[in-house]
């Protein structure tokens, strides 16, 4: 089992950058696929990016390709989301999620594949 805690959210102007982090406690972080999801007001939660346990496979939603970068540091049990060229439509609560995948490199894109979730961190982009 793993516990996830996000940090680093905040208010930023359009065009700015922000890096959010997700710290994991528990064992075997390097056996988890990790993902970032977001939920805007009045909308369903959607995938932003996913990364396999050894960073071999990385997925980005089309809406963030070229602007966001997901990475992980297994030695520090942390996954990051670097967000550049932020737009007002990037506003939402960003959630970190984990999926136990000890035997394969995989980056899931469906929230139902993830068993562990953080509490979320608010990102607000002003125009």
Key descriptive features of the protein:
single chain, 127 residues, mainly beta, seven-stranded mixed sheet, four-stranded antiparallel sheet, 0% helix
Structure, explained:
With 127 residues, this protein is mostly beta strands. It is 0% helix and 51% strand. It contains no helices and eleven strands. Strands 2, 4, 5, 6, 9, 10 and 11 form a seven-stranded mixed beta sheet that branches. It has a four-stranded antiparallel beta sheet with strand order 1-3-8-7, with no helix packed on it. A hairpin with a 4-residue loop joins strand 7 (68-73) and strand 8 (78-83).
What order do the helices and strands come in, and which of them pair?
Blueprint: E1 2-7, E2 10-13, E3 18-26, E4 32-39, E5 46-51, E6 58-60, E7 68-73, E8 78-83, E9 92-100, E10 116-117, E11 121-126
Parallel strand pairs: 2-11
Antiparallel strand pairs: 1-3, 3-8, 4-5, 4-9, 5-6, 7-8, 9-10, 9-11
What gyration radius follows from the Cα positions, in whole Å? 13 Å
Q: Write down how many β-strands occur, each being a DSSP E stretch of 2 or more residues.
A: 11
List the uncertain runs.
none
Question: How far is the N terminus from the C terminus?
Answer: 40 Å
Tally the helices: 0
Question: Summary?
Answer:
About 0% of the residues lie in helices and about 50% in strands.
């Amino acid at each position: 089992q793993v516990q996830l805690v996000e940090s680093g959210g905040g208010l930023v102007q359009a065009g700015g950058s922000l890096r959010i982090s997700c710290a994991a406690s528990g064992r075997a972080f390097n056996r988890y696929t990790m993902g970032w999801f977001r939920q805007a007001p009045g909308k369903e939660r959607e995938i932003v990016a996913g990364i396999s346990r050894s960073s071999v496979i990385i997925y980005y939603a089309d809406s963030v390709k070229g602007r966001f970068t997901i990475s992980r540091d297994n030695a520090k049990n942390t996954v990051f989301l670097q967000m550049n060229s932020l737009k007002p439509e990037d506003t939402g609560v960003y959630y970190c999620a984990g999926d136990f995948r000890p035997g394969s490199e995989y980056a899931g894109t469906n929230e139902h594949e993830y068993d562990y979730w953080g509490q979320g961190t608010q990102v607000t982009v002003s125009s």
